[in-house]
Amino acid sequence: MPSLEAYLIVSVILFGIGAFGFMARRNAILMLISIELMLNSVNLSLVAFNAYLPAAQNAGAVFALMVMAIAAAEATVGLALVIAIIRTRQTPEVDEYDDLKE
Amino acid sequence: MLAIGIIGGGLAVVTLRNVIHSAVAMMVCFGSLAGMYALLGAPIIAAAQVLIYLGAISVLILFAIMLTQAGDASFPAPFHRQAPIAVLISMVVIGLVSWAAVSTDWGAAPAVIVVAVNSIGELLFTTYALPFELIGFLLLAAIIGAIFLARRPEEDERAN
């Protein structure tokens, strides 16, 4: 039976991986996937708190469902933006988007 | 076991060169997360994870990748120059938050509290009714925004 701390550590490692992917990857779609990883790690910690703390009274599960809905909305708009940018710039690499620099 | 799936899948997502492979690794990661939610006594969250992430968001991302791939099989360098700094910052975040998680006394229950599905439904329509309605409105706005953004400009001119 793993403890609450074990779940929290898995969650923070996943968050760190997502943050690294967002900061280091050059592909715009990979950056969006990294944001999804971070949102999922927060969801995991919410559900873990909900499962181990009686004071939570299922609020964690409700919040996790809401985070999922907002993540879906964010992914839809984000991917539409990325597709629109790629259509005009012909590349998914974010460091090629330097119009404002010129 | 599921933790290996989650962390390995996450690492594969950010390190693989091919974006399609990253998306498949993301699906492995999300599937393991669904299993972990079931272990944590929240089967409704596990079902929602499978439906929303494995079913909807993964397919959306795969479609976006296929729409935007250049066609040639060349994979440019996946990382920015600042990747070492990003590794350092992520490690610091992981270390600090794990230290905080381990050193805090949470007063945790010894066994997992199972979530009753009917209590979630009740909470959504009583205590959390306003956020629930706001999320419905937000999803509507997101649909309209996505259609507006993804429309081709020339169709716009033809309509005028």
Question: Which descriptors would you attach to this protein?
Answer:
heterodimer; A: mainly alpha; Helix Hairpins; elongated; B: mainly alpha; 7 helices
Q: Any overview of this molecule?
A:
The complex is a heterodimer of chains A (102) and B (160). Chain A has helices at residues 4-24, 28-52, 59-89. Chain A is an all-alpha fold. Chain A has a single domain (4-91), classed as Helix Hairpins. The radius of gyration of chain A is 17 Å and the shape is elongated. The termini of chain A are far apart. The mean pLDDT of chain A is 86. With 160 residues, chain B is an all-alpha fold. Chain B folds into two domains: 1-69, Four Helix Bundle (Hemerythrin (Met), subunit A); 117-160. In chain B, 75% of the residues lie in helices and 0% in strands. Chain B has seven helices and no strands. Chain B is globular, with a radius of gyration of 21 Å. Classes of the chains: A mainly alpha (102), B mainly alpha (160).
Helix tally of chain A?
3
Could you name the ranges of chain A where pLDDT drops below 50 across 5 or more consecutive residues? Answer: none
Low-confidence stretches of chain B: none
| Oligomeric form | heterodimer
What is the count of β-strands of chain B? 0
Q: Name the CATH class of the largest domain in chain B.
A: Mainly Alpha
Q: What's the number of domains of chain A?
A: 1
**CATH class group of chain A:** Mainly Alpha
Main structural class of chain A: mainly alpha
Compute the number of structural domains of chain B.
Answer: 2
As a percent range, the share of helical residues of chain B equals over 70%
How big is the Rg of chain B?
21 Å
* Main beta-sheet strand count, sense and barrel state of chain A: none
Q: Biggest interface and its residues per chain? A: A-B, 71 and 81 residues
In the CATH hierarchy, the architecture of the largest domain in chain B is: Up-down Bundle
The coarse silhouette of chain B is globular
**Discrete helix count of chain B:** 7
User: Percent helix among the residues of chain A?
Assistant: over 70%
